[in-house]
Amino acid sequence: MSAPPGNTDVNQDPPPPTPGTTRRRGPNWLPAEEAQLAISWVNASEQPEFAANQTSETFYRKVKEDFNLHSRVHYRNWEQIRTRWGPLNTSTLKFAAIYNAIERVPPSGSGPDDWLKAAHLAYQSQNKGVAFNSVPAWQNVRHVSKWRQDGGPDRFSQTFENMSETIEDQSTTDGSVTASGITSSDSQGSLPRPIGQKAAKRRRIEGYKDDEILSAASEFSALARDRLAFIGEGNIIAKEANALAKEQLKIEEKKQVIEEQHRQSEVQINDLKMLRETVDDLEDEESKNVLRMIQKKIKNKWLST
What we know:
The protein is mainly α. It folds into 2 domains: 31-185 and 194-244, no CATH class; 253-304, no CATH class. 59% of the residues lie in helices and 0% in strands.
């Protein structure tokens, strides 16, 4: 007889696959999960031990704990967290660089909604038609210093307030965090993390990627401003077209009034002609009676007006 099964921790990562088997792919990430992942990453990077000599696995396990504490959609292990954060981090950084460049030098008469549209167009143009679909995640980190390379002030200092599936508040971190999520912060009293050979190489690669992002952002921010100016000119043309349409409508209304007056005149002329007819010109009595009835109706019509 087999022993009864023991208690299982639902938050424990599944064991690694045995040789010869493949790991089952997790469910697709939802926008709400990406938004929570961004918050959890910042929360983990704000911890005092963030700058200590810890491994990538240690850091992302902390991100996993915070993520699964607040997300009620799908459980994610630390490897899934790390795998998804890589491209999400890159895309939000790239989009933030484009948006910040537009926000710093906005076209005349434009607002935040126009800047957001222009940033989407520039991002899609830069990425071979691929749209930016992680707006909720970007909104949660857009004011964090890492995503504001222009040196703008952080707008929030409190820790993120999380909800089950709805993410409302945004916050920032005082520490400067890099794309890898394991680099040192600027928190007071923290010790710099020793840099190994692989880590140094990874940082050089990531620094190069960030430089590419900022360079491309500057290039496409000019394109975005031109497109916003074109949109403004289009709005002016649309207003002028609306004014012309209103004038044309007035002309059509006047035309209809004139046509109605003309029709009434023709009716009056025909009625007068009919009243001038005499029954003596008709031969049969039936036709005479019809003429008398028509003339009577015409008289009654004009007498009643």
